[in-house]
Amino acid sequence: MRRRVFQPHGLSLVETTIILLVLMVLTGVLAPSINDFVNDAKDVKVKEDCEAIGATVMRLARDVGPCLRNITADPCIKINRVDVLYSDGDSISFADDIDSSTAPDFSHPDIDGAGFLNWDMGPVSGDTMESQFLQNLPTYGTPGTVGNHNPLAGFRVPGPAFFLGWRGAYLEPHVGPDPHGNPYVVNSVFLSVATDATAGSGEGQRSGGWDRDVICVSAGRNRRFETPFGGNSTKGTARTGDDFVYVISGDTR
Fold first, then answer.
1. Structural domain count, the chain
2. How does residue 20 score in pLDDT terms, banded at 50, 70 and 90?
3. How is residue 41 annotated by DSSP?
């Protein structure tokens, strides 16, 4: 009796075509869901990062004083105050990355430089988060070394600032960028007024404070900053477009 031997054979052209069509349909159905899942994960990451940055800003301000400075040996004058904190990420261009219709320049007589600030002014009027949070390049003093200097005794004696000092590092390196490649930015100017500000009790003046919110901002998926640096017409936070905004501190007045 002869045995029949069955040889394996590949898929026919019709079978291959059907399988490919099924895969294409499944891909078309699942792709939006996968894309939404990825975007949701990025949004969660932005939220967590901004919350961590916000907590760090407040810890640093508690430890070294509300005026973040570029050179700690110099007082909190306008030219020395850190007005914008920014993380790693692509550099921000006013023309390309900021929507001037919704996020115009914030103008005020008691800020440094050209008299205006926006999210792109970090390299001009600010400092990096890595410098302030991780490296202490401003060289804030350590706790116990910051206090009132007694010129007769020749050393620092306990005073209102005696227990202030840098207690970092405050975050794990590196800080930023956000999942879209943009830097996180904080309008740290509103943490304190400058000692050389205009005399008076008005907004930003020496005996006043700022009635603006300190916020952490991510430009979002469209990679354009649309939220105003100084808040809206009532000076509160005005999240605009797809920006992510986290309020770090309310007004200081």
1. 1
2. confident
3. H
Domain assignment present for 111: yes
pLDDT in the model for residue 30: 62
Q: Is residue 35 part of a domain?
A: no
Contact of 197 with 83, CB cutoff 8 Å:
no
| Residue 210 placed within a domain | yes
Work out whether the CA dihedral 211, 245, 118, 60 comes out positive or negative. positive
pLDDT digits (tens, 9 = 90+) for 118-157: 999 999 999 999 999 999 999 888 776 655 444 444 444 4
Length of the chain: 253
Q: Is 2 exposed, middle or buried (0-12, 13-18, 19+ CB in 10 A)?
A: exposed
Q: What is the pTM of this model?
A: 0.79
Q: Give the count of alpha carbons within 13 A of 90, CB side only.
A: 16
**DSSP state for residue 187 in the 8-state scheme:** -
Helix or strand holding residue 248 (H, E): strand 244-249
Please give the residue range of the domain that contains residue 172. 40-249
Q: 92 in helix, strand or coil?
A: coil
- Please indicate, yes or no, if residue 69 is contained in any of the structural domains: yes
Say whether the peptide bond before residue 174 is cis (omega within 30 degrees of 0).
yes
Closest C-alpha to 187, from 50, 74, 65: 50
Q: What is the mean pLDDT of residues 202-231?
A: 91
Helices (H) and strands (E) counted in the chain, each on its own, are 4, 9
Strands 185-186 and 116-117: unpaired
